[in-house]
């Protein structure tokens, strides 16, 4: 998102190969992430020789990090057990449950979901 945004501010669209090269991520993984970001309206895609991925500069200000995290990772970071246990909740908490409740709340708030 950051690379696409910086190029978009210059008026450039970026191809997947450029993103893979600059970011250093596998092409299939990058393609899936980009597809998910397009489907969720966070970036746009245009096919053809002058196509590529871009974000409208006016839209950049309204995109919150939490939207990007949710598209890529879902909301499990805000719901799952901090220790990775399958059974962890307020009724049957893990030893770190109360600390992670606070951490998740602060993380969610700082990523833009007040």
Structure notes:
The protein has 114 residues and is mainly alpha-helical. Helix content is 53%, strand content 5%. It has seven helices and two strands, in the order H-H-H-E-E-H-H-H-H. Strands 1-2 form a two-stranded antiparallel ribbon. A hairpin with a 5-residue loop joins strand 1 (44-46) and strand 2 (52-54). Helix 2 (16-23) crosses helix 3 (27-39). The longest helix is centred in the C-terminal third of the chain and has 14 residues, at 97-110. The protein is elongated and about 55 Å long. The chain starts with a helix and ends with a helix. The mean pLDDT is 90.
Task: List key phrases describing it.
two-stranded antiparallel ribbon; 2 strands
Question: Topology of this structure?
Answer:
Blueprint lengths: L1 H8 L6 H8 L3 H13 L4 E3 L5 E3 L2 H4 L4 H9 L2 H4 L17 H14 L4
Antiparallel strand pairs: 1-2
Q: What's the N-to-C terminus distance?
A: 22 Å
Give the percentage of residues in beta strands.
5-15%
Mean pLDDT figure: 90
> How many distinct beta strands?
2
Radius of gyration from the CA trace?
18 Å
Shape descriptor: elongated
Instruction: Going across the biggest sheet, name each strand in turn.
Output: 1-2
Unreliable residue stretches: none
N-to-C SSE series?
A: HHHEEHHHH
Structural category? mainly alpha
Sketch the major β-sheet.
Answer: 2 strands, antiparallel
Proportion of helical residues: 40-55%
So how many helices? 7
């Amino acid at each position: 998102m950051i690379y696409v945004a910086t190029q978009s501010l210059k008026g450039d669209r970026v191809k997947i190969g450029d993103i893979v090269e600059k970011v250093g991520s596998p092409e299939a993984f990058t393609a899936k992430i980009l597809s998910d970001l397009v489907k969720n309206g966070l970036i746009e895609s245009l096919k053809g020789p002058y196509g590529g991925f871009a974000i409208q500069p006016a839209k950049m200000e309204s995109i919150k990090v939490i939207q990007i995290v949710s598209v890529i990772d879902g909301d499990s970071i805000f719901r799952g057990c901090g220790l990775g246990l399958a059974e962890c909740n307020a009724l049957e908490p893990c030893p770190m449950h109360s600390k992670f409740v606070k951490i998740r709340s602060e993380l969610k708030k700082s990523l833009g979901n007040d």
